[in-house]
Fold this sequence. Notes:
3% of the residues lie in helices and 44% in strands. With 128 residues, it is mainly beta. The strands form 2 sheets. It has an 8-stranded antiparallel β-sheet. β6 (57-61) and β7 form a beta hairpin. The longest helix is centred in the last third of the chain and has 4 residues, at 98-101. The radius of gyration is 15 Å and the shape is globular.
Amino acid sequence: MGDEVERGPRAAAPSDSSRPLLPWGVARVRGDSMRPHLRPGDRLLVRYGARPRPGDVVLARFPDGTLVVKRAAEQRADRAGVPGWWLLSDDPERGVDSRHRGVVPARDVVGVVRLRWWPPRPGARRSA
């Protein structure tokens, strides 16, 4: 598949085991679908419940339960009129996205990626 991410530790609310209590979390990229922007092994800081904007990188859940990191291209409604997002891979030749799965309901966009924090890129400045 190449789209999955691994989500770091989180505290789950008793009423909804998929919704974290803490507003921030960590995800690790698995796969090449977001190259060159993100690479396998990259660690991401995710703001759960944040409202995405077009162009944001988001953490979303596909109907089969797979968590994915994709770029929110635009807001769209599905055929039933349910509001959602058209999510795309940065590398259109790799991975699964809305071109294959359709509109992802807004409720299944788990959070917005705020930054990639690990590993450092070659040539990046290091503070002393």
